[in-house]
C-alpha cells in the first residue's frame, strides 16, 4: 500500500479509543508518525501506541485534559519537543451531555465543561499548532451532524458546540489558506463507540434514520480523516464532510 503520509507527524487528541484510536491507526497505516492524547485512560492509550508501533511508525501518548487550555498548549509543545513538529492535527477529543433548556436539573457545570472541551480545547490546539505548522499542513476536526440539526430535544448545548467547530473551520480556512494549510470538519452520524454504542437505547431509532439502515464504524470515519490528511485533498478546505450513513439525506 502506498504510504501517502510517510514522513508526516500527526497529533490526534482523544486518541485512546473510538474514532480517535481508529484515526490514529489509519494515519499510521499511511505512514505517519502519530502522537495521541488522553485524559485518563493511560492503559488504553498505551495499548493504542503499541498497535501503532507494530505498524512500523513512531508513536507516543501524552496526557492532557482538553478542557484545560494550559494543558492543551503544553500538549502541542510536548509533541513538538518529542517529534520535532506537527504536520497534521486531528481535533477528536469531545464530550457529550444532553439537557433541555427548561430543565432545572440541567447541570450548568457540565455545560461549561462541554464548551471547554468541544470548543475551547479545539481552538486552543489550533492556536498552538498554527504558528509552528509548516506550509501545507492539515487541520481536521471531528464535529457531528447535530452541528447542523437538532433532531431531538435536549441536544441544543451539544449542537451549539459542534456548530461552533464548523464555523471556526470556515474562518480558519481563510486565515491559513495563504500558507496552503487546509482546515476541514468531519461530521459523523451514529457511530458505534462508547459514547453511542450500536446496542444502546437509541440504536434502533438511529439506525432506522440512516439511509443505509445501520450504525457506522470508527474506521469509516477514520478513512475520511486519512483522505483529508493526504496529498489528494490539497484543494479541499473550509469544508464540512458528513460521514453519517445518509441520516441527513
UniProtKB/TrEMBL annotation:
Oxidoreductase: is it a keyword of this entry?
Answer: yes
The Ketoreductase domain sits at 8-194
What's its EC? 1.1.1.100
**What superkingdom heads the lineage?**
Bacteria
List the SUPFAM superfamilies: NAD(P)-binding Rossmann-fold domains
Q: Which UniProt keywords apply?
A: Oxidoreductase
The molecular function terms of the Gene Ontology recorded here are: 3-oxoacyl-[acyl-carrier-protein] reductase (NADPH) activity
Q: Which InterPro entries match?
A: KR_dom, NAD(P)-bd_dom_sf, Sc_DH/Rdtase_CS, SDR_fam
PANTHER family xrefs: SHORT-CHAIN DEHYDROGENASE-RELATED, SHORT-CHAIN DEHYDROGENASES/REDUCTASES FAMILY MEMBER
Its family remark reads: Belongs to the short-chain dehydrogenases/reductases (SDR) family.
This chain's protein is named: 3-ketoacyl-(Acyl-carrier-protein) reductase
What is this organism's lineage?
Answer: Bacteria, Pseudomonadati, Pseudomonadota, Alphaproteobacteria, Hyphomicrobiales
Amino acid at each position: 500500500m502506498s504510504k501517502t503520509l510517510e514522513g508526516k507527524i500527526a497529533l490526534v487528541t482523544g486518541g485512546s479509543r473510538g474514532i480517535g484510536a481508529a484515526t490514529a491507526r489509519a494515519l499510521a497505516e499511511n505512514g505517519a508518525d502519530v502522537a495521541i492524547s488522553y485524559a485518563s485512560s493511560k492503559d488504553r492509550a498505551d495499548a493504542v501506541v503499541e498497535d501503532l508501533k507494530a505498524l512500523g511508525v513512531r508513536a507516543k501518548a501524552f496526557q492532557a485534559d482538553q478542557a484545560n487550555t494550559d494543558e492543551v498548549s503544553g500538549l502541542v509543545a510536548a509533541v513538538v519537543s518529542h517529534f520535532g513538529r506537527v504536520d497534521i492535527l486531528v481535533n477528536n477529543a469531545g464530550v457529550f451531555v444532553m439537557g433541555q433548556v427548561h430543565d432545572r436539573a440541567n447541570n450548568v457545570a457540565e455545560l461549561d465543561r462541554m464548551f471547554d472541551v468541544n470548543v475551547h480545547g479545539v481552538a486552543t490546539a489550533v492556536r498552538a499548532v498554527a504558528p509552528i505548522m509548516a506550509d501545507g499542513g492539515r487541520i481536521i476536526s471531528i464535529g457531528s451532524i447535530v452541528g447542523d440539526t437538532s433532531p431531538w430535544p435536549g441536544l441544543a448545548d451539544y449542537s451549539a458546540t459542534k456548530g461552533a467547530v464548523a464555523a471556526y473551520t470556515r474562518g480558519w480556512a481563510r486565515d491559513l489558506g495563504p500558507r496552503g494549510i487546509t482546515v476541514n470538519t468531519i461530521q459523523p452520524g451514529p457511530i458505534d463507540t462508547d459514547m453511542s454504542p450500536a446496542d444502546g437505547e437509541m440504536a434502533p431509532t438511529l439506525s432506522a434514520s440512516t439511509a443505509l439502515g445501520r450504525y457506522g464504524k470508527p474506521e469509516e470515519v477514520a478513512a475520511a480523516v486519512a483522505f483529508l490528511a493526504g496529498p489528494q485533498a490539497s484543494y479541499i478546505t473550509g469544508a464540512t464532510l458528513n460521514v453519517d450513513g445518509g441520516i441527513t439525506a
